[in-house]
Amino acid sequence: MGERIFATPELPPRALGERIFATPDWDFISIQSPMRIQRMFLQERKAVALSWLRHTREQVRQLRRFHRGTLRENLRPSAAVGVRLAIDAARFRMVCDTARLLIWLGGPFWARWMARHATTVAEQMAYLPGRLLVGLDARRMSRIKNDWLRRSAA
Amino acid sequence: MGNGVKNIQVEEAIQDLKQRTLAEMPGEIARLVYLSSTRDYNTGQYHHEGLAFQFTEEVARKALEAYHKELFHKLLFGSLEHLVYELQLYAGSARVPPSELLEVWKKLEPYRITIPLDCDPLAAEFFFSNIRIALSVLETRPEMNPAG
CB of B119 within 8 Å of any CB in chain A? Predict the structure, then answer.
């Protein structure tokens, strides 16, 4: 979300996603370890990859709530912004579903490019509402903050 | 850096920590375990008598916290091969046989307390998973099981 203004939804750092889906660990394990460890490694990494996907999806869901509720009511962004976010949300869902399928079928490393793509789309979605908040006066910012806190607690 | 504590003081305290207390420790896991042990289990606040005496309580606390995070991130984003190496170094330097240490680490999972307080849950999950894998890799190495 660029600069984080208050406790708005936060995506997992890109570097963590890159690290989880990177292949050098598998190269190390597949060369040096017995089959039992290789299986364990793939199970462990698959579980973490699925957690990453769940976490990213959840944050994007929160971001959509933030936009549809708090930002729309307080800032009334243009219809174009709403359409853009809806298209990105559909893209994001599709990419995540594909990544999930690839993780289940072939393991986390099959989904590497899809995971990267999911991060890019999620970052784009986070950037747009973030830009709407920049430059707002303290009173409006405080109103938006309170509105979001109320909605998140509900 | 809030409360009047300057970055430069914290940086000096980190250097002091590295050059004195941590210098003799064999590897990054030993340092990580040590740094997390300087944290109060109930409050999560760091404390180091010598560092606080030389600087201030607050500078010492911030230095320990900052270096703990730095070291954790180094291990988190480093390769699994590096983590296995560091864990082997730690197991080899402990006062108990390495095989015993590996067993206890697998059962009690003491590595769970080595994460920084504000660690992202996903990062913690990834770190724990990597430690579990590293422990299993080490178990298969003959030098870790000299009797077997």
Answer: no
CA within 13 Å, CB half, A66 = 25
Structure confidence at residue A26 (pLDDT): 97
Beta-carbon contacts of residue A18 (< 8 Å; ≥ 6 apart) = A116
Average pLDDT of each block of 10 consecutive residues along chain B (148 residues)? 71 94 93 96 94 94 96 97 96 90 95 94 97 96 72
- Nearest residue of B to residue A21 by CA position? B126
pTM, rounded to two decimals? 0.88
Q: Write down the ipTM of this complex.
A: 0.88
Query: From the CA of B81, how many Å to the nearest CA of chain A?
Result: 7
**Which distant-in-sequence residues (6+ apart) come within 8 Å of B45 by Cβ?**
B39, B61
Task: Count the Cβ atoms, other than its own, within 10 Å of residue B51.
Answer: 23
Q: Are the C-beta atoms of B64 and B51 separated by less than 8 Å?
A: yes
Q: Which two tokens stand for residue B80?
A: 């699994």
